[in-house]
Design a protein that fits this description.
Low-confidence stretches of chain B: 435-443
Radius of gyration of chain C: 23 Å
Strand order of the largest sheet of chain B: 3-4-5
Radius of gyration of chain B: 32 Å
Number of helices of chain C: 9
Distance between the termini of chain B: 59 Å
Helix content of chain B: over 70%
Structural class of chain C: mainly alpha
Helix content of chain C: 55-70%
Shape of chain B: elongated
Oligomer: heterotetramer
Strand content of chain B: under 5%
Order of helices and strands of chain C: HHHHHHHHH
Chains: A mainly alpha (about 130), B mainly alpha (about 1050), C mainly alpha (about 250), D mainly alpha (about 300)
Chain lengths: ~130, ~1050, ~250, ~300
Amino acid sequence: MSILADLPISLIVLCSGLGLVLIGLWGMLTQRNMIRMIVGFSLTDTGVHMVMVSIGYVTGGTAPIINDAVPMADAVNRVVDPVPSALVLTAIVIGLGVTAVMLSYAVRIYKARKTLMIDECTESKW
Amino acid sequence: MVSSFFSDILLHPLGIYVLALGAGFLIPLFDRAHRGSAVLVFFAALAGMVAIAGLNLLAIVNGAPSIDIETAGIAPPFSINLRFGLLEGGFVLAVNTAALLAAWHCLPALRQHASALLLFLIMVMGINGMIMTRDLFNLFIFIEITSIATYALIGMERTGSVLAAGFKYIIATSVATTFFLLGTIFIYYQVGTLNIDDIIVHADLIQGPIGFIATLFVLTSLLIELKPYPANGWGLDVYETAHSGIASLISVGVSAGVFFAIYKVLPLMDSYLTSIAFIGGATFLVSNIIGLKQDNARRLLGYSSIGQMGLLTLALALLLQLEASSQLVLVVGGLFINHMLAKAGLFWLAGIIDRSQLKDWCAIAQRPGLLLLLGIMMAALIGLPPFPGFWAKWQLVMILAEGGQYLWIAVVLIGSLLEAAYLFRWFSHARGTDNNSMGDSSTDEVPPQAVVSLAQQLPVAIATLLLFVIGYVMALAMNIETPGMFLPLLAGFALWLIDGIRGRLKALAMLLVVGAGGYWLTNDLDGINRLFSYLLVGGGLLVSIAVMYRNDDRRGFYPLLAVLLLSLAVLLRAKTSLEFFFGWELMTLSSYLLVTLGRNGVKPALNYLLFSLASAYFILAGFALAYAASGSLLLSDLGNSGDSIGLIFSLLAIGFVIKMGGFGVHIWLPGAYAEADDDFTALLSAVVSKAGIFGLVLIAANLGVQSDIGLDPTYVLGWIGILTATFGALMAVFQEDIKRMVAYSSMGQLGYIVTGIALMSHLGWVSALYMTVNHFLFKGILFLSIAGIVLRTNERMMYKMGGLIKNMPFTFVFTMIAIIAMSGVPPLTGFGGKWMLFNALMDKGWYFIAAFAFFSSAVAFLYMFRLLQTVFLGQRKLEHAQLREAPAILLAPQFIMIAAIMVISAYPRLLLDPLSAAIDPWISNTLVWEGFALQTQYGYWNAPMIMAVVGGVWMVPLIILLLVSLTMKIQKVEQFNIVYAAERPHRPEDTHFAYNFFAHYDRAIGFLVRPRATAFWNAAVEWSHTLASSLRVFYNGNGQTYALFILMYFVAMVLFNGGLGS
Amino acid sequence: MIKRIFIFLILALMAMIFFNLATNYSENTELSRLGHYYVETGPEELGAPNLVTAVVVTYRGLDTLGEVTVLFISAAGVGLLLRRTRRKDDDEDLEQGDRAEETAGTHKPASEIVETATELLLPMVILFGIYVFLNGHLSPGGGFQGGAIIASGTMFLLLALPESHISRLMIAIIESLSGFSYVIVGVLGVIMAGGFLDNRIMDLGTYGSLFSAGAIPLIYVFVGLKVGFELSAVLDRFRKEDTGPL
Amino acid sequence: MIAEWIGKIGNFTLTLLIVTAYGLFMTAFIERIIAKVQGRIGIPYWQPVINILKNFFKRTAVSHGYMFYLGPVFRIAGGIGTLAFIPVIYGSETFSNFSMAGDLFLVIYFMFFGQLGMALGAGESGHPYSAIGIARGLSQMTAYEVPFALAVISIVIQYDTLSITEIVAAQQGGWENWTVFTNWVATLAAMLAFLGMTGYSPFDIFLAPQEIPIGPPTEFHSAYLSFMSLNRALFGATKLVLFMNLFFGGATGLLELMIKTWLIYMVAIVIGVSFPRFRVDQAIRFFFKIPTLIGIMSIVYAQMMLTS
C-alpha cells in the first residue's frame, strides 16, 4: 500500500481510468448481449472521463472557483486546470446521449427480432 | 441594425449554425402547429445554409480573405474559432448542396417525423462544424453531433436489418471516438491548448511515447471513421440497409467532414503520411477487389464509397508528402466533389429504383432517362471525362509521376479499373442483357419496369448537371482548349434533345452536325493529323451515311455516334497529352455505350470497356512518366524524356495495342464487333480502330524517331503485331459467325499495321499508313456488306446462308473486291501494302517476322474464301429465295470506297505522296520513283503497269470465252442441277458445304488457336473473385468482430509506426 | 475460444500501450497555458468565480451549444426510434411486438414509502436543481448538473407513479424555446458584444453575486431547463416507448 | 510507246505459246511415266492437246451463274499473268516478259489470283465437292507457303534483291554459283514446298485426280474445262520456270530451260509415284515440321554464311 500512497493521486486516477477503458472494451468484445455491450461502453466512457479529470489535476490544486477560499492573486498556483473539467462535463453529456440512443436501439432490436444477441444480427455481411 | 443583422449574422458563415440550430430547435413547435410548416422551415434552413456557403465562397474566390469566426469575443486559442477559407468553403458548399438534394430525395421518409427533419438538419450542421472548426475538442463535439444524428436517422426505418446494422455502426464509431477523446486529452496534456493552429505551432511539445500515442489515437480514430479496410464492415452494413438518402449523406457528407478533419490535423502527422497513404491505398484497392464479387447494389455502392474515400486519403497523404499542396484544390477537391455528386446520385438512384440485387436492375432497361443518369454517374465515378474526377485523377497521376511514386500510380489505376469493372457490370444488368433492337423476337418478356416520377429523379438530375458544370470549370482550370474539346459533348447533347424525331431525320441531323463540327475542329490541322482527319472524320462520315438504312427509333444511337466521331476529331486536334487523353476517354466511353446498343451487346461491351480502360490507363501512365521526365504536357515534347523513353514508349504502345486488339489482349474484340449494331461495327472496325493507329504513329513519331536512343521495344512491338496478324487470321478461319470472323480478320489486319509502325523506317511507316487507308476501305465495305446481309437474312451464322450471289449481286461484287484488296493479291491495293511491308522488313532484317507475314497472309485466304463461298456461293437456302439486294443507302458508301480502291490500285502514288510528305518531318523520304514505279533497295513495283497487265490477261480469256459462248448453247440451270451421283439433292442444307468448313485444318493445327487467351482472362477473373472472397472473410456480420478490428487498427498503427519502445 | 484468445491478445497489446502512457505520465505541477490564462484573466474578463463555468459557457461556449444540441438530438433520436408503430405498412413483426408489449400487463405499483417520499421530495429535488443551475457561475454546478437533478426528479416520479402523465406539449415547448433562446443569446453576443456566445451582452455586475457574470446565468437557465426537460423526455420515452408527435 | 507495248505483247505471246506447249508436253510426259510405273502403256503425247481442243469446241455448256462463268477466266488469267511477270530466259529481251512491272514478291502473290477466282467459280456451281476441294487446297497452300517463304527470304538475304532478273544474274558464271550449290538449305526447303505446290502425290488430295468427281473442277466442262486444263499445263510450267530462275541458275537458252525444268519436274514425279497420298491434315503437319525447320535453317544459314 505504501507504494500506492507514494504515487501521485492523478496517476492512480489515470491508471484506474485506463483500466476501466480496458474492462469496458473487454465487455464490449466478449459479451454477446447488447445490453451488456452497452454497459461495456459506459465503462469505457467513464474510464476516459477519469483519464480526462486526472490530466487536469495539478499537484495540490483545488477546485477552480475564485472566491473567498481561493484569492484571485494566488489562484494560479492553487487551483487545478478548469479546462479538463469543462471538457469532461461535455464528454459526459455526449456519452449519455450515445448511451441513450444505443439503449433505444437495443429496445427496438429486441422488439424486431426477439433477441439481444449481437451474433444473431449478422444478416448483412460480405 | 436589420441590415447588419443580415450581413453579420445570417450571411456570415456563422449563420449556418444559427439557422440550423434555430430551425432545429423550433421544428418540433412548428410541427405541433402544422406538419407542412415544419417541412417548410426545414427546407428554408437547408437552402439558407447552401446560400450562405455559396455567397461566402464566391466572395473568397473573388479575392476576399478567408473568414475567421471567433466566438465569445475572445481571441483564440483561448476561445473556439471556426474558419471559412477556400477549401472549407468548397467542402461546406458541396456538403450542403448534397444535403439539400438528399433531403429532397428522402423527403417522403423524413416528413413522417418532425424529429427526423431536425435530426437531418443538425447532422448537416455537424458536418459543417467538423469542416470549419479549428478546435480539437470542438471537433470531437461536432463528430458526435453528426454521429448521434446519424445513428438516429439510420434507425428511422426500423426493420431488423437496419437496426442491427445501426447498432454495429454505433459500437464501431463510439469505440473510435472514445480513442479520439483519449488522444485529444493527452495532446492537451502535453501542449496545453486545444486550438489546432496553436497545437501546430507548438508541435514540438508533442513528444515522447505519450505524444506519439496521442497523435496516433487522434489520427487512427479519424481514419477509422473513414472506414479503412478491414475495419469497415459496420459501414458497409449501413450503406446496404439504411435509407438511401441517409446512406448517401453518410457516404458523402459525414465522410467529407471526417476527411476534412484529417486534413486539418495532418500537419501534426508528418511522420505518418506513409502509413496514411498505405491505408488509403490498401482500402481503395481491396474494396474495389471485393466489390467485384458483390451482387447487392447498395452494398456495392458501399464498397465503392469506401474505396473512393481511400483514394481521397491516399491522394491527400501523397500530395502533402510530395509537397504539392498547391494542387490540393484541384486533385483532392476534384476527386471529392466528383465522388460526392456521383456517389450520392447513385445512392439516390438505388433508392428510387429500389432493387437490391444487381440482376434485378433490368427494371430500368426500358427507361432511357434513368439509364442515362446511371451511366453518367458511373462514368463520373471512375473518372471518365468530362467529369471532375477525370481532371483530378489526371493531375494526381501527374504529380505522383513527378514524385516518382510509380507504385502508387499503379495502385490508383488498378483500383480504378476494378471499380469500373463492377460499376459497369451493374450498368450491364441495368441495360438488360438482351435487347432486341432489330425487333425480331417480340416474345421476349420485358421485366416489370420501375416507376419513377420526375420529382424523384430531380436530385439525381441536378447532381448530373453539377457534375458537368464543375467538370467544365475544371477543364478551364486545366487550360484545356474550350469549347473545342467540349464540342463532342455539346453536339451529343443537342442531338439528344431531338432524339424524339424520326430515325432517318435524326441520322441526317447527326451527319450535318458531325460534318460541321468535324470540319471546324480539323480544318486547321496539318501534317499527319490532317491525313488522319480525312480518314477518321471524313471516313467516319462516309461510313456513317449507311446508318440511314435503318429508320427505327434507335434511342441514343445518333447522339452517341456524334460524340464518338467528334471525339476522334478532338483526338486529332489535341496538342497536349491531356487533351489527347480527354479525347481518348471520350471515345472509349461513347463507343462502349454504342456497343451496348447492339442486339446482345451488353456483355461484350463490358469486356470492351474494361480492356479499353486498361488501355487508357497504360496510356495515362505513359503520359505521366513522360510528363515527369520532360516537364511538359505537349505531345511534341514527348521525345525529351531522356532515359525513361523506352519505358514510356512501352507503356503507351501497350495501351494502343490493347485498343487495337493485340495478340493476347484481343478477347474483347470479336464480341464487341460481333454484337454491336451492324452499321456501327463497320465504324468500329474501319474508323475507330484507326484511333489506336494514330496514337501509335504519334508516339512512334515523337518518341521513337526523335530520340537517338535505340528502342528495343519496337522489336517486341513488331513481333506483337505479326503474331496478332497470324493468330487473328487463324482464329478467323474457325468462326461460324460472319461478324466474328471478320472481326478477327480486322484484328489480324491491324497487326500488320502495328508491325509496319514498329519498323521505325520511312518505308515501314508508309506501308503502315497505306495499309491503314486500305484497311479503312475494305473493312468498311465488308462490314457494310455484312450489315446488308444480316438485314436481309436476319442471320449471322454463315452455314445458314449460301447462294446469295443470286439475290445480292452488288453486295457480292463489292465484297469480292474488298476481299481481293484485303488479301494482297495484285493488282488491288492490298498488294502495295504487303509489298512495302515486306521490303521494309527485309531492309530492317526482321526476316522471321517477314516469314510470319507470308504465312498469315496465306492463312487469310482461308477465311476470305470461306466468307465468299459459304455466304454467296454454294446452295441457296429455300427461304432465302425471295431476298432482295441490300438497300441502296448501304451500297452507296461501299461503292464510293470501291471506287477509291480502284483508283489507288492503279495510281498508288496519289496516296503515297501525301503519306510520305506527312512522315517527312520525322523520317526523310526514302521512296524513289521512276515514273510510276516505286523502287526500293530490293525490288520495284509498277502499279499502273501491273494493273494494265492483269487487266489484259484477264480480258483476253474473257473475250475468247465470250466469243466461244456465242457459238455455244449456254444453258442456265437450276440450283440443284449438279453432278450428284445422278441424283437431285433434296435440300440445300444437304449439299451446302459450309459448317465447320476447315475441319481438316483444325485437325492439323487447330491446337494453336484453342482459346488460351480467353482461358487466361477467365482464370484471371476467377482468381480475382477468389481473392475477393478471401479478402472479405472479415465481414462476418458480427458487430463484435468489427469492433475488434478497430482495436486492432489502433494497436497495429502504434506497432507499425514505432512500437511500444521509445 | 480462439476468438477470445485473440481478443485477449489485442487487449493485452492495448494494455501495453496504456501502460506506456501511464509510465510516461507525470503529474502536472503547474497549470497549462490555457488553464493559466483562464485562471488569471477569467474572473475579471467574464466576472464568473466558477472558472469551469466560465470556460463551459463562454470560452468554450460553442462546445456547450453543441452539447445541448447533442442532448437535444439524442432525445429526438430516442423519440424517433421508440415511436409507436402507427402505420399498417410497417414491419409485421414490429407491430406484433408492440401489441404484445401493450398487453403485457400493467406495472406493479410502487410501494407506499416510495410514493410518499416522492411526493415529499420531488418539489425539493426540482428546487435544488433550479438552485444548482442558477448558481452555476458561483459555485460547483451549472446548467447540466441542475438539469440532471431535475431529470432525476422526473425519474423519481416515474418510479413512484408509473402511470403519471407528463405533458409532451409542455416539454416540447420548453425544450424548443429554451434552445432557441440560447441561440438568440448567442447571436446577441455577435451584435452587442465581441462575438458569438459572448456573455458580456449584459452587465458583468458585482463579482460573486447571483446576477453577475453577464449572460452566464441566463444561459444556464436555458441550459438547465432544456437539459432537465430533455432528460425527462428521454426517460419518459423509455417508459412508454411511445411518443406520438415529438 | 504504243509500238513498244505492241512489241512487248508480241514477245509475251510467243513466250506464252512456247511455255504452254512445253507444259502440255510435260503433262503428257508425266502421265506416261505414271502409266509405265503402273505397267500401262499410257497416253500419246498429243492427248492433252486433243482433250483441250475437244472440250473447247463442245457445243453445249451449262452455267450456274456469272461467277461460275468467270471462274475459268480468272484461273487462266492467273496462269498467264504469273508467267507475264517472270523473265523466262536470262539476257533475252524477247523472253523477259513484263518482269519490269514487279519483282519476285509480285509473282508469289499473283499466284493466288487464279486460285481465288477459280475457287469462286467452283463455289457458285453449288457442288459440295468443289468447296471441299478448295478448302483442302487452300489449307495445304498455307502450309507449303511457309517453307517456300522461308526459302525465298533466304535467297533474298543472299542476293540482296527481290528482282528475279538480278537473282538469275547473280547465279551466272558457272554451275557453282547456282543457288542449289551456294544455298542448298534454302533450295531443299523450296523443293519440299514445290512438292506441295505441284499437287502431285503425296500432296494431291485436294485435286484427287483418280477419283471421279472430286475437286474444284467438278462442275466444269466444255470450254470452261479446256481453259482449266490449259492453265494447268501453263501454270505448272510457269512454276518450273520460277524455280529454275530462283534456285538453278536460270536459263540462257531454250534448251537449257527445257533440260533444267525437266529435271526439276522429275523430282516431283519420282517422289509422286513412290509415295502414297497424304490426308490433308497430315500434309499440313508435314510441311510445318521438317520443311519449315529447314526453311528456318536456311535463313540462319543465309544470314551467317552468305552476307558479309
